[in-house]
Amino acid sequence: MPIRVRFAPSPTGPFSLGNARTALFNWLFARHEGGQFLLRIEDTDKERSKKEYEKDMLECLKWLGLDWDEDFFRQSERIPAYKKELEKLLEEKKAYWCFCTPEELEDERQAQMSQGLSPKYGGRCRSISLEEAEARAKKEPAVIRFRMDDGIISFPDIIRGKVSFDTALIGDIVIAKDLKTPLYNFAVVVDDEEMKITHVIRGEDHLSNTPKQIAIQEALGFSKVQYAHLPLILGPDHKKLSKRYLETSFNEYRTKGYLAPAVMNFMALLGWHPENDREVLSREEIIAEFGLKRVQKAGAIFNPEKLDWLNGQYLKILPPEELAEALKDFIPKEWVKKKEMLAKIAEVDRGRMKKLSDFRELADIFFELPDYSKSLLIWKETPEAAILDNLRFTLDVISKIPAGDFKKETIEKYVMTVADKRGRGEVLWPLRAALSGREASPGPADILEIIGQEEGARRINFAIGKLE
RNA sequence: GGCCCUAUCGUCUAGUGGUAGGACAUAGCGUUCUCAUCGCUAAAACCGGAGUUCAAUUCUCCGUGGGGCUACCA
Which residues contact A341 (CB under 8 A, 6 or more apart)? Predict the structure, then answer.
């Protein structure tokens, strides 16, 4: 039987890191096993589901490169299918209409909890006949409950091993608000059967939903599926990632300048690890090595510094054309036109970036000399007069470089002759400071080649003017 | 409160019945005019107790800590 997994998000909020990780592990498993990765939108909650969130999710999946097989569908498009199964359960008395009010249920719950019992529905409406219930349901608010028989439901979890739940503690759960409004635990079961899902890979927060879904599955006579509950990604507060912390929208990783392969690599390593010690892994390598057996059981705290480091690693090896292309979204429009210059700057500064968004500030000096004070030009205790003299001399040397040979290597040769004679710090620091206007920057030869002989001379003269 | 899951450096993790390896972060050194990169070094962990065993971080149990769920959300 071919392996079929699904990613089934509900579009009730911005796509999150947790969502992305679940999608990734499903996708990795499918690709590694040569199975299928399907997509399903769980939009049964009409109030909270929004089209914009669905769009956001689709964009994020595409950006990450998680391609799905077959067409995806929305649960809101499958209402008749759920209705059919709901009616079947009702007729077979495996489900029944319940007319208890929210207030009554809340009181019951409170009473049970104060006695140290597990809160569950008492079963007051269990005995109402279907005929009577259907008549009443037309006039008064009602929901459909699943009749949960007492017993132990155990299932093997690929990651955790055997897990057991006592259904007597769960009680009769609500599976639909009415025939046209199914609820999560019910819709999932119907769809997984319809889609011929073989493995359900999802977050650990769904572990306690599993016995409910298995019970419904059995009542409907559906086939079993295998489960794998992933450890949760925790925030720095050790709690399930929430909007309050880093659970910003996943899209922000893109807009902040993280590379998709780096984010994928990082997420894969959150709860999974290859057999060897390698950590920078390409998509193909991850697919080749991925397996559910090596997935961690305990939750993992999200570590932004490591993401930055990994992103830096990818930035360093990104082909020049791809780097230039990726940078386009992070720089002013005027810069984009200066293609050649931009490419050179990117090469010079790529090692200094953690994120693509860092580039703008790093590259700024090539387009415009920042304001700086005279003291920036002074190297340690060197007297101003010596600095001034070195600058003048260096300018003279640089001016003698043939215009057609104004390349980094040549410039370096000329400049280093001066530096070796007059002291490296004494020559190079003021020169670099004059060229960049900053305390930290690429080397003088790098800057000179990019800004050119003329602009270089202008900047050095400007520094000389400050010192005079 | 009840149920379920879980436990190796600060963080992500490897690993084994004979006390632990890698990575990020941190500190120092080296390369270097600066920053960054890179290289090297240091500091840094098996939650506690009992049991099994010649021996337990590893197996079992009990605690404790952490997390999740406990909706007419998903």
Answer: A366, A450
